[in-house]
Specification:
With 345 residues, the protein is α+β, with helices and mostly antiparallel strands. It is built from seven helices and 18 strands.
């Protein structure tokens, strides 16, 4: 986005920046009496590694062409309840760079359809959809290092990309036993982080859920769960503190934190997770720890597709995923590479 803005600014275009609400900014350019409007949104970029399971190699990688072959053969995933995911390659950006490819995952649904209304009369009605049409939300991802690593746009409305890819690849593996593959784990790439076994006491948990995750994130409290569902479009922020009189820490907090990281998808369900804890061999005092900082996560500004829809420009998103990869490249390359299997025929 900055590169695009710099080009416009060099052309002596007047630039006004206005807050557009909901975390977006609107850039208005005036040139030759024509109004040009570009809206920015914040998107989160995360990095994962593909860990294939083979009969002879429990941890291995596949060449990029083999990963592409699998995704293209199993690119439509039926989630039931009139909903599916569609995996699509994009050849319009960085198609000439070896070892890198661009993809998208679209969530298409024929349920939970919003209604439209007249702006003046407030008369709502159903959105007319054809038999094979549905509401579509799209997220983007890129493959790097010959398919060993993916950079993912986190878009909860479009669903979890890692879940869609896991189902696609696992289904292909079941249908092709001759390949010797038993499935895949798609794991977030982690920095060296605090050893959770060294946590001794937690007095505060501060978390923020990503939008639209109530179906997958249940706090196991009936009334609180209803609040989650009612406010799910924007995400929820919760702070839990110890009883100041007791000062014994939050009971069960350490087990809860460990459980979040036992589930590799937890990183996609939470956009913030900070704790105040006493750590073994530490200062003996409470210290604030950002647990999500252990993952390769970055927030980037991307161009909105247009003023009416929720989607973002594919090229802008791919540019930011690629820029983030360059930012994290040293840490990504420092990961221990898996054994590379031969190409699938």
């Amino acid at each position: 986005m900055k590169k695009t803005l710099d080009i416009w600014l060099k052309q002596d275009i007047q630039l006004d920046k206005m807050y557009g609400g909901f975390g977006s900014y609107i850039y208005v350019f005036r040139q030759m009496n024509i109004l040009h409007m570009v809206i920015e949104l914040t998107r989160t970029v995360r990095f994962f590694e593909l860990d294939f399971i083979h009969a002879e190699h429990p941890h291995c990688s596949l060449p990029e062409k083999s990963v592409q072959k699998i995704l293209l053969e199993k690119n439509i995933i039926d989630f039931g309840n009139a909903e599916r995911r569609v995996i699509t390659p994009c050849k319009d950006y960085l198609s000439d760079v070896e070892g890198i490819s661009c993809w998208s995952v679209s969530r298409i649904r024929q349920h939970d359809i919003p209604r439209i209304s007249d702006m003046l009369a407030h008369n709502s009605k159903e959105i007319p959809l054809g038999e094979d049409e549905g509401i579509c939300d799209t997220a983007h991802f890129m493959m790097f290092l010959d398919g060993a690593v993916i950079g993912v746009e986190s878009c909860q409305q479009a669903g979890s990309i890692s879940t869609a890819l896991t189902i696609s690849i696992s289904t292909w593996c079941r249908e092709h036993p001759e390949a010797g593959l038993q499935g895949v784990n798609i794991n977030p790439i982690k920095r060296s982080r605090i050893d959770l076994d060294k946590l001794q006491k937690i007095r505060k948990i501060h978390l923020r859920t990503s939008p639209n995750i109530s179906e997958n994130y249940n706090p196991n409290v009936k009334e609180l769960g209803r609040l989650f569902a009612m406010n799910d479009d924007s995400g929820i922020e919760i702070t839990l503190r110890e009883d100041k009189k007791e000062k014994k820490g939050i009971q069960g907090a350490i087990e809860w934190v460990k459980a979040q990281f036992a589930d590799d998808n937890a990183v996609e369900k939470l956009s913030l997770l900070k704790i105040e804890a006493v750590v073994q061999n530490g200062s003996g005092k409470y210290e604030e720890i950002d647990l999500l900082d252990s993952f390769l996560i970055a927030k980037k500004r991307v161009i909105k597709l247009d003023s009416k829809t929720k989607g973002v420009s594919s090229q802008s998103m791919y540019e930011q995923i690629n820029n983030t990869y360059e930012d994290f490249k040293t840490e990504i390359l420092a990961r221990k590479p898996y054994y590379v299997l031969s190409e699938i025929r």
